[in-house]
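Input record (one chain):
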Amino acid sequence: MFSLITDHPLLSALALLVLDLLAWRFVSAERMYWKIGGRLTIFMLFSMLLFNEGLNPMQTAQWVEDVPRHLAATGLQIAWWLFAARTLTVMIGAVMMQRVGHTGRLLQDLLGAVIFLVAVIAALAYVLDLPVKGVLATSGAMAIIVGLALQSTLSDVFSGIVLNTTKPYQVDDWISIDGTEGRVTDIDWRATRLQTSQGSMAVIPNSLAAKAKIVNFSRPSDMHGLSISVQVSPHARPQKVIEALERAMIGCRALLASPAPSVTLKNTGSAGAEYEISGFVASMGQKREVRNQLFDLAFRHLHASGVSLLSSSESAAAMAVSRPRALLESSSIFSTLRPDEKDTFSQNMTLQTFRAGDVILAAGEVSDHLFIIESGVVSVSLLRNGQPIEGGRMGPGEVIGEAGVVAEQAAFANFNAKTFCTLYRIENSYLKPCLEARRDIGDAMKNLLDVRIHLAQNLTRELPKPVAKKRFLQWLRSRA
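The corresponding structure, as predicted from the sequence alone:
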Protein backbone atom coordinates (compact mmCIF):
# COMPACT_ATOMS: atom_id res chain seq x y z
CA MET A 1 0.00 0.00 0.00
CA PHE A 2 2.78 2.45 0.97
CA SER A 3 4.75 1.56 -2.16
CA LEU A 4 1.70 2.29 -4.27
CA ILE A 5 1.42 5.77 -2.76
CA THR A 6 5.11 6.54 -3.21
CA ASP A 7 5.16 5.22 -6.79
CA HIS A 8 2.00 7.06 -7.88
CA PRO A 9 1.63 10.17 -5.70
CA LEU A 10 -0.51 12.09 -8.21
CA LEU A 11 -3.02 9.24 -8.50
CA SER A 12 -3.07 8.95 -4.72
CA ALA A 13 -3.79 12.67 -4.40
CA LEU A 14 -6.64 12.34 -6.89
CA ALA A 15 -7.97 9.36 -4.92
CA LEU A 16 -8.01 11.50 -1.77
CA LEU A 17 -10.15 14.12 -3.54
CA VAL A 18 -12.60 11.44 -4.64
CA LEU A 19 -12.63 10.00 -1.10
CA ASP A 20 -13.45 13.44 0.34
CA LEU A 21 -16.34 13.92 -2.08
CA LEU A 22 -17.79 10.48 -1.28
CA ALA A 23 -17.41 10.94 2.48
CA TRP A 24 -19.08 14.36 2.36
CA ARG A 25 -21.87 12.97 0.22
CA PHE A 26 -22.74 9.81 2.11
CA VAL A 27 -21.88 10.53 5.77
CA SER A 28 -24.99 11.62 7.70
CA ALA A 29 -25.47 15.35 8.28
CA GLU A 30 -26.02 14.65 11.97
CA ARG A 31 -22.30 13.78 12.23
CA MET A 32 -21.21 17.19 11.05
CA TYR A 33 -18.15 17.40 13.31
CA TRP A 34 -16.97 13.99 12.11
CA LYS A 35 -17.35 15.18 8.54
CA ILE A 36 -15.37 18.35 9.22
CA GLY A 37 -12.65 16.39 11.02
CA GLY A 38 -12.44 13.90 8.14
CA ARG A 39 -12.21 16.70 5.57
CA LEU A 40 -9.45 18.43 7.52
CA THR A 41 -7.52 15.13 7.79
CA ILE A 42 -7.87 14.41 4.07
CA PHE A 43 -6.75 17.96 3.22
CA MET A 44 -3.63 17.54 5.34
CA LEU A 45 -2.79 14.21 3.65
CA PHE A 46 -3.45 15.77 0.25
CA SER A 47 -1.08 18.65 1.08
CA MET A 48 1.63 16.27 2.29
CA LEU A 49 1.48 14.29 -0.98
CA LEU A 50 1.81 17.45 -3.08
CA PHE A 51 4.68 18.97 -1.07
CA ASN A 52 6.55 15.66 -0.91
CA GLU A 53 6.31 15.44 -4.68
CA GLY A 54 7.72 18.96 -4.98
CA LEU A 55 4.40 20.51 -6.09
CA ASN A 56 4.29 23.78 -4.23
CA PRO A 57 0.84 25.41 -4.83
CA MET A 58 2.56 28.81 -4.79
CA GLN A 59 4.75 27.92 -7.76
CA THR A 60 4.10 26.73 -11.27
CA ALA A 61 4.17 22.99 -11.84
CA GLN A 62 7.32 21.18 -12.94
CA TRP A 63 7.80 18.79 -15.82
CA VAL A 64 7.07 21.32 -18.59
CA GLU A 65 8.46 18.85 -21.15
CA ASP A 66 6.13 16.06 -19.95
CA VAL A 67 2.81 17.65 -20.97
CA PRO A 68 0.36 15.07 -19.47
CA ARG A 69 2.16 15.04 -16.14
CA HIS A 70 2.48 18.82 -16.18
CA LEU A 71 -1.29 19.22 -16.77
CA ALA A 72 -2.10 16.72 -14.02
CA ALA A 73 0.18 18.50 -11.56
CA THR A 74 -1.29 21.90 -12.49
CA GLY A 75 -4.81 20.57 -11.98
CA LEU A 76 -3.93 19.19 -8.53
CA GLN A 77 -2.32 22.49 -7.52
CA ILE A 78 -5.46 24.39 -8.53
CA ALA A 79 -7.51 21.77 -6.70
CA TRP A 80 -5.39 22.41 -3.59
CA TRP A 81 -6.45 26.09 -3.54
CA LEU A 82 -10.13 25.21 -4.05
CA PHE A 83 -9.89 22.40 -1.50
CA ALA A 84 -8.32 24.82 1.01
CA ALA A 85 -11.07 27.39 0.36
CA ARG A 86 -13.78 24.76 0.81
CA THR A 87 -12.25 23.41 4.04
CA LEU A 88 -11.94 26.92 5.45
CA THR A 89 -15.54 27.86 4.58
CA VAL A 90 -16.86 24.65 6.13
CA MET A 91 -14.98 25.32 9.38
CA ILE A 92 -16.12 28.96 9.48
CA GLY A 93 -19.68 27.84 8.76
CA ALA A 94 -19.61 25.38 11.67
CA VAL A 95 -18.40 28.08 14.06
CA MET A 96 -21.00 30.61 12.82
CA MET A 97 -23.81 28.04 13.00
CA GLN A 98 -22.91 27.33 16.60
CA ARG A 99 -22.88 31.01 17.54
CA VAL A 100 -25.64 32.63 15.47
CA GLY A 101 -27.58 29.66 14.03
CA HIS A 102 -29.35 29.74 10.68
CA THR A 103 -29.78 33.52 10.80
CA GLY A 104 -26.13 33.99 9.77
CA ARG A 105 -26.36 31.78 6.69
CA LEU A 106 -26.41 34.71 4.28
CA LEU A 107 -23.27 36.21 5.85
CA GLN A 108 -21.69 32.76 5.77
CA ASP A 109 -22.42 32.43 2.04
CA LEU A 110 -21.01 35.90 1.37
CA LEU A 111 -17.84 35.13 3.32
CA GLY A 112 -17.50 31.82 1.47
CA ALA A 113 -17.80 33.60 -1.88
CA VAL A 114 -15.00 36.01 -0.90
CA ILE A 115 -12.76 33.11 0.21
CA PHE A 116 -13.32 31.26 -3.07
CA LEU A 117 -12.65 34.44 -5.05
CA VAL A 118 -9.32 34.86 -3.23
CA ALA A 119 -8.49 31.20 -3.87
CA VAL A 120 -9.22 31.51 -7.61
CA ILE A 121 -7.10 34.67 -7.93
CA ALA A 122 -4.26 33.00 -5.98
CA ALA A 123 -4.42 29.95 -8.24
CA LEU A 124 -4.27 32.18 -11.33
CA ALA A 125 -1.31 34.13 -9.93
CA TYR A 126 0.80 31.32 -8.42
CA VAL A 127 -0.12 28.17 -10.35
CA LEU A 128 -0.84 29.53 -13.82
CA ASP A 129 1.53 32.50 -13.47
CA LEU A 130 -0.98 34.88 -15.06
CA PRO A 131 -0.73 38.70 -14.74
CA VAL A 132 -3.19 39.22 -11.89
CA LYS A 133 -3.31 43.00 -12.33
CA GLY A 134 -4.60 42.63 -15.87
CA VAL A 135 -7.07 39.97 -14.76
CA LEU A 136 -8.30 42.18 -11.95
CA ALA A 137 -8.65 45.18 -14.28
CA THR A 138 -10.58 43.09 -16.80
CA SER A 139 -12.70 41.53 -14.07
CA GLY A 140 -13.41 45.01 -12.68
CA ALA A 141 -14.75 46.19 -16.02
CA MET A 142 -16.77 43.00 -16.35
CA ALA A 143 -18.06 43.49 -12.81
CA ILE A 144 -19.38 46.96 -13.72
CA ILE A 145 -21.16 45.58 -16.79
CA VAL A 146 -22.60 42.63 -14.87
CA GLY A 147 -23.58 44.89 -11.97
CA LEU A 148 -25.60 47.18 -14.24
CA ALA A 149 -27.29 44.17 -15.82
CA LEU A 150 -28.08 42.61 -12.42
CA GLN A 151 -28.96 45.81 -10.59
CA SER A 152 -32.23 44.54 -9.12
CA THR A 153 -30.69 41.21 -8.12
CA LEU A 154 -27.75 42.95 -6.42
CA SER A 155 -30.23 45.19 -4.63
CA ASP A 156 -31.91 42.06 -3.25
CA VAL A 157 -28.54 40.65 -2.20
CA PHE A 158 -27.39 43.75 -0.30
CA SER A 159 -30.85 44.21 1.19
CA GLY A 160 -30.60 40.62 2.41
CA ILE A 161 -27.27 41.46 4.05
CA VAL A 162 -28.87 44.46 5.77
CA LEU A 163 -31.82 42.36 6.96
CA ASN A 164 -29.50 39.69 8.35
CA THR A 165 -27.39 42.34 10.08
CA THR A 166 -30.21 44.37 11.65
CA LYS A 167 -32.40 41.25 12.18
CA PRO A 168 -35.91 42.75 12.17
CA TYR A 169 -37.08 39.13 11.88
CA GLN A 170 -35.60 35.63 11.94
CA VAL A 171 -36.54 32.17 10.74
CA ASP A 172 -39.74 30.90 12.46
CA ASP A 173 -40.88 34.45 13.36
CA TRP A 174 -44.48 35.31 12.48
CA ILE A 175 -44.39 38.63 10.60
CA SER A 176 -46.31 40.88 8.24
CA ILE A 177 -44.58 42.60 5.29
CA ASP A 178 -46.78 45.19 3.58
CA GLY A 179 -49.90 43.27 4.63
CA THR A 180 -48.59 39.81 3.66
CA GLU A 181 -48.66 37.81 6.89
CA GLY A 182 -46.95 34.49 7.53
CA ARG A 183 -44.20 32.52 9.26
CA VAL A 184 -40.63 33.05 8.03
CA THR A 185 -39.33 29.76 6.62
CA ASP A 186 -36.18 30.95 4.84
CA ILE A 187 -34.07 34.05 4.15
CA ASP A 188 -31.70 33.61 1.22
CA TRP A 189 -29.72 35.85 -1.14
CA ARG A 190 -32.70 37.05 -3.10
CA ALA A 191 -35.89 36.78 -1.09
CA THR A 192 -37.67 36.06 2.16
CA ARG A 193 -40.11 33.16 2.12
CA LEU A 194 -43.26 33.22 4.24
CA GLN A 195 -45.71 30.40 4.89
CA THR A 196 -49.13 32.02 5.21
CA SER A 197 -51.96 30.87 7.47
CA GLN A 198 -53.62 29.33 4.36
CA GLY A 199 -50.58 27.09 3.88
CA SER A 200 -49.36 28.85 0.73
CA MET A 201 -45.83 30.17 0.18
CA ALA A 202 -45.20 33.89 -0.30
CA VAL A 203 -41.84 34.95 -1.79
CA ILE A 204 -40.96 38.59 -1.05
CA PRO A 205 -37.79 40.13 -2.60
CA ASN A 206 -35.35 41.37 0.01
CA SER A 207 -35.22 44.82 -1.59
CA LEU A 208 -38.98 45.15 -1.09
CA ALA A 209 -38.81 43.83 2.48
CA ALA A 210 -36.02 46.29 3.38
CA LYS A 211 -38.23 49.25 2.33
CA ALA A 212 -41.59 47.92 3.53
CA LYS A 213 -43.36 48.24 6.85
CA ILE A 214 -42.54 45.11 8.86
CA VAL A 215 -44.63 43.98 11.82
CA ASN A 216 -43.03 41.18 13.86
CA PHE A 217 -45.71 39.41 15.89
CA SER A 218 -43.14 37.14 17.56
CA ARG A 219 -41.37 39.93 19.44
CA PRO A 220 -41.27 40.23 22.32
CA SER A 221 -41.42 36.45 22.56
CA ASP A 222 -43.42 36.35 25.81
CA MET A 223 -46.15 38.86 24.95
CA HIS A 224 -48.44 38.89 21.91
CA GLY A 225 -51.33 41.30 21.40
CA LEU A 226 -54.82 40.41 20.25
CA SER A 227 -58.15 42.18 19.97
CA ILE A 228 -61.77 41.44 19.12
CA SER A 229 -64.57 43.80 18.14
CA VAL A 230 -68.26 43.43 18.96
CA GLN A 231 -71.17 45.53 17.72
CA VAL A 232 -74.21 46.18 19.86
CA SER A 233 -77.31 48.32 19.62
CA PRO A 234 -76.59 52.07 19.76
CA HIS A 235 -79.36 52.38 22.38
CA ALA A 236 -77.48 50.22 24.91
CA ARG A 237 -75.92 52.24 27.71
CA PRO A 238 -72.11 52.31 27.15
CA GLN A 239 -71.26 51.80 30.84
CA LYS A 240 -73.44 48.70 30.95
CA VAL A 241 -71.74 47.27 27.86
CA ILE A 242 -68.24 48.10 29.11
CA GLU A 243 -68.89 46.43 32.50
CA ALA A 244 -70.15 43.28 30.75
CA LEU A 245 -67.10 43.16 28.47
CA GLU A 246 -64.78 43.75 31.45
CA ARG A 247 -66.32 40.71 33.13
CA ALA A 248 -65.66 38.78 29.91
CA MET A 249 -61.98 39.82 30.12
CA ILE A 250 -61.76 38.74 33.77
CA GLY A 251 -63.31 35.38 32.84
CA CYS A 252 -60.50 34.70 30.33
CA ARG A 253 -57.54 33.48 32.40
CA ALA A 254 -55.22 33.28 29.38
CA LEU A 255 -55.05 37.09 29.11
CA LEU A 256 -51.94 38.49 30.79
CA ALA A 257 -52.51 40.68 33.83
CA SER A 258 -49.70 43.00 32.74
CA PRO A 259 -50.08 44.86 30.45
CA ALA A 260 -53.70 44.91 31.59
CA PRO A 261 -56.43 44.18 29.01
CA SER A 262 -58.86 46.98 28.23
CA VAL A 263 -62.24 47.76 26.67
CA THR A 264 -62.65 50.71 24.30
CA LEU A 265 -65.64 52.24 22.57
CA LYS A 266 -64.25 52.61 19.05
CA ASN A 267 -67.12 54.30 17.26
CA THR A 268 -70.87 54.71 17.41
CA GLY A 269 -73.62 55.68 15.02
CA SER A 270 -77.22 55.04 14.12
CA ALA A 271 -76.26 51.62 12.71
CA GLY A 272 -74.69 50.42 15.98
CA ALA A 273 -71.86 50.88 18.47
CA GLU A 274 -68.53 49.06 18.14
CA TYR A 275 -66.53 48.04 21.20
CA GLU A 276 -63.05 46.51 21.21
CA ILE A 277 -61.45 44.19 23.76
CA SER A 278 -57.65 44.19 23.57
CA GLY A 279 -55.10 42.28 25.61
CA PHE A 280 -51.99 40.14 25.52
CA VAL A 281 -51.23 36.42 25.68
CA ALA A 282 -47.99 34.60 26.42
CA SER A 283 -47.56 32.75 23.11
CA MET A 284 -48.61 33.01 19.47
CA GLY A 285 -50.25 29.59 19.62
CA GLN A 286 -52.83 30.89 22.13
CA LYS A 287 -54.14 33.77 20.02
CA ARG A 288 -56.77 31.89 18.01
CA GLU A 289 -58.10 29.94 21.01
CA VAL A 290 -58.23 33.03 23.25
CA ARG A 291 -59.98 35.10 20.57
CA ASN A 292 -62.67 32.44 20.22
CA GLN A 293 -63.03 32.22 23.99
CA LEU A 294 -63.34 36.00 24.28
CA PHE A 295 -66.10 36.09 21.66
CA ASP A 296 -68.02 33.41 23.56
CA LEU A 297 -67.55 35.14 26.92
CA ALA A 298 -68.51 38.52 25.46
CA PHE A 299 -71.72 37.05 24.06
CA ARG A 300 -72.65 35.39 27.38
CA HIS A 301 -71.87 38.38 29.59
CA LEU A 302 -73.61 40.82 27.26
CA HIS A 303 -76.63 38.52 27.16
CA ALA A 304 -76.57 38.30 30.97
CA SER A 305 -76.64 42.12 31.10
CA GLY A 306 -79.61 42.28 28.76
CA VAL A 307 -77.52 43.49 25.81
CA SER A 308 -77.52 41.50 22.56
CA LEU A 309 -75.04 41.61 19.73
CA LEU A 310 -76.23 43.70 16.82
CA SER A 311 -78.34 41.77 14.30
CA SER A 312 -80.81 42.58 11.55
CA SER A 313 -83.76 41.12 13.45
CA GLU A 314 -84.58 40.42 17.09
CA SER A 315 -87.08 37.86 18.33
CA ALA A 316 -89.88 39.57 20.25
CA ALA A 317 -90.63 36.33 22.08
CA ALA A 318 -87.04 36.05 23.25
CA MET A 319 -87.10 39.62 24.57
CA ALA A 320 -90.26 38.88 26.61
CA VAL A 321 -88.85 35.75 28.32
CA SER A 322 -87.84 36.13 31.97
CA ARG A 323 -84.18 35.86 32.93
CA PRO A 324 -84.54 32.49 34.75
CA ARG A 325 -86.39 31.10 31.73
CA ALA A 326 -83.71 32.48 29.39
CA LEU A 327 -80.99 30.82 31.51
CA LEU A 328 -82.66 27.44 31.10
CA GLU A 329 -82.87 28.01 27.35
CA SER A 330 -79.15 28.74 27.08
CA SER A 331 -78.03 25.97 29.44
CA SER A 332 -76.67 22.86 27.73
CA ILE A 333 -78.03 20.73 30.59
CA PHE A 334 -81.60 22.04 30.81
CA SER A 335 -82.17 22.98 27.16
CA THR A 336 -83.86 19.61 26.49
CA LEU A 337 -86.75 20.38 28.88
CA ARG A 338 -90.15 20.96 27.38
CA PRO A 339 -91.44 24.57 27.42
CA ASP A 340 -93.92 23.82 30.23
CA GLU A 341 -91.16 22.13 32.26
CA LYS A 342 -88.93 25.16 31.79
CA ASP A 343 -91.72 27.43 32.97
CA THR A 344 -92.12 25.33 36.13
CA PHE A 345 -88.38 25.24 36.72
CA SER A 346 -88.02 29.00 36.33
CA GLN A 347 -90.71 29.58 38.97
CA ASN A 348 -88.69 27.53 41.48
CA MET A 349 -85.41 29.43 41.00
CA THR A 350 -84.45 32.05 43.58
CA LEU A 351 -81.91 34.82 42.93
CA GLN A 352 -78.84 35.23 45.15
CA THR A 353 -76.08 37.82 44.93
CA PHE A 354 -72.42 37.60 45.99
CA ARG A 355 -69.82 40.30 46.30
CA ALA A 356 -66.30 39.88 44.94
CA GLY A 357 -64.37 37.53 47.24
CA ASP A 358 -67.45 35.85 48.76
CA VAL A 359 -67.45 32.05 49.00
CA ILE A 360 -70.25 30.56 46.92
CA LEU A 361 -69.47 26.91 47.67
CA ALA A 362 -66.57 25.73 49.85
CA ALA A 363 -64.44 22.66 49.19
CA GLY A 364 -65.61 19.67 51.27
CA GLU A 365 -69.19 20.93 51.51
CA VAL A 366 -71.99 18.68 50.25
CA SER A 367 -74.33 21.02 48.41
CA ASP A 368 -78.09 20.59 48.86
CA HIS A 369 -78.84 22.91 45.94
CA LEU A 370 -77.72 23.75 42.43
CA PHE A 371 -76.54 27.19 41.31
CA ILE A 372 -76.83 28.54 37.75
CA ILE A 373 -74.64 31.60 37.17
CA GLU A 374 -76.73 34.51 35.92
CA SER A 375 -73.95 37.13 35.67
CA GLY A 376 -70.42 37.71 36.90
CA VAL A 377 -67.24 35.63 37.08
CA VAL A 378 -66.69 32.74 39.50
CA SER A 379 -63.16 31.56 40.34
CA VAL A 380 -62.50 27.85 40.98
CA SER A 381 -59.51 27.16 43.26
CA LEU A 382 -57.92 23.89 44.37
CA LEU A 383 -54.96 22.76 46.48
CA ARG A 384 -51.82 21.29 44.90
CA ASN A 385 -48.87 20.36 47.10
CA GLY A 386 -50.59 22.29 49.89
CA GLN A 387 -50.68 25.51 47.84
CA PRO A 388 -53.90 27.03 46.42
CA ILE A 389 -54.07 27.32 42.63
CA GLU A 390 -56.77 28.69 40.36
CA GLY A 391 -58.13 25.85 38.25
CA GLY A 392 -60.53 27.88 36.12
CA ARG A 393 -63.13 30.60 35.86
CA MET A 394 -66.84 30.24 35.19
CA GLY A 395 -69.37 32.57 33.61
CA PRO A 396 -73.08 32.95 32.81
CA GLY A 397 -75.00 29.74 32.11
CA GLU A 398 -72.64 27.39 33.99
CA VAL A 399 -73.77 25.36 37.01
CA ILE A 400 -72.23 24.86 40.48
CA GLY A 401 -72.98 22.13 43.02
CA GLU A 402 -73.76 19.18 40.72
CA ALA A 403 -71.58 16.85 42.87
CA GLY A 404 -73.93 17.11 45.84
CA VAL A 405 -77.05 16.88 43.68
CA VAL A 406 -76.33 13.78 41.56
CA ALA A 407 -73.82 11.89 43.77
CA GLU A 408 -74.10 13.46 47.24
CA GLN A 409 -70.36 14.10 47.09
CA ALA A 410 -68.50 16.98 48.66
CA ALA A 411 -67.32 19.81 46.44
CA PHE A 412 -63.77 19.21 45.24
CA ALA A 413 -62.89 22.91 44.94
CA ASN A 414 -63.65 26.33 46.34
CA PHE A 415 -66.03 28.43 44.24
CA ASN A 416 -65.50 32.15 44.99
CA ALA A 417 -66.99 35.24 43.39
CA LYS A 418 -64.29 36.93 41.29
CA THR A 419 -66.61 39.88 40.57
CA PHE A 420 -70.06 40.84 41.76
CA CYS A 421 -72.17 37.79 40.84
CA THR A 422 -75.83 36.92 40.64
CA LEU A 423 -76.81 33.25 40.69
CA TYR A 424 -80.12 31.41 40.56
CA ARG A 425 -80.55 28.68 43.16
CA ILE A 426 -82.58 25.49 42.70
CA GLU A 427 -83.17 23.46 45.87
CA ASN A 428 -82.31 19.75 45.85
CA SER A 429 -85.69 18.86 47.27
CA TYR A 430 -87.32 20.14 44.08
CA LEU A 431 -84.55 19.04 41.71
CA LYS A 432 -84.31 15.36 42.78
CA PRO A 433 -87.80 14.29 41.59
CA CYS A 434 -87.22 16.13 38.30
CA LEU A 435 -83.95 14.31 37.70
CA GLU A 436 -85.59 10.95 38.39
CA ALA A 437 -88.28 11.77 35.85
CA ARG A 438 -85.84 13.09 33.25
CA ARG A 439 -82.88 10.70 33.12
CA ASP A 440 -81.25 12.61 30.25
CA ILE A 441 -80.72 15.65 32.49
CA GLY A 442 -79.32 13.48 35.27
CA ASP A 443 -76.94 11.79 32.84
CA ALA A 444 -75.80 15.17 31.50
CA MET A 445 -75.01 16.37 35.05
CA LYS A 446 -73.12 13.12 35.81
CA ASN A 447 -71.05 13.55 32.66
CA LEU A 448 -70.28 17.13 33.67
CA LEU A 449 -69.24 15.93 37.14
CA ASP A 450 -66.94 13.25 35.65
CA VAL A 451 -65.25 15.80 33.39
CA ARG A 452 -64.69 18.23 36.26
CA ILE A 453 -63.32 15.52 38.57
CA HIS A 454 -60.91 14.41 35.84
CA LEU A 455 -59.71 17.99 35.30
CA ALA A 456 -59.33 18.51 39.06
CA GLN A 457 -57.25 15.32 39.39
CA ASN A 458 -54.94 16.46 36.59
CA LEU A 459 -54.51 19.90 38.15
CA THR A 460 -53.91 18.65 41.71
CA ARG A 461 -51.53 15.83 40.76
CA GLU A 462 -48.28 16.35 42.63
CA LEU A 463 -45.47 17.50 40.41
CA PRO A 464 -42.30 15.37 40.50
CA LYS A 465 -39.57 16.97 42.56
CA PRO A 466 -36.54 17.93 40.48
CA VAL A 467 -33.45 15.91 41.25
CA ALA A 468 -30.70 18.18 42.54
CA LYS A 469 -27.58 17.85 40.44
CA LYS A 470 -24.43 17.56 42.49
CA ARG A 471 -21.49 19.51 41.25
CA PHE A 472 -17.99 18.07 41.22
CA LEU A 473 -16.84 20.00 44.32
CA GLN A 474 -19.95 18.92 46.23
CA TRP A 475 -19.23 15.31 45.29
CA LEU A 476 -15.65 15.66 46.59
CA ARG A 477 -16.93 17.12 49.88
CA SER A 478 -19.42 14.27 50.28
CA ARG A 479 -16.62 11.75 49.72
CA ALA A 480 -14.26 13.44 52.16
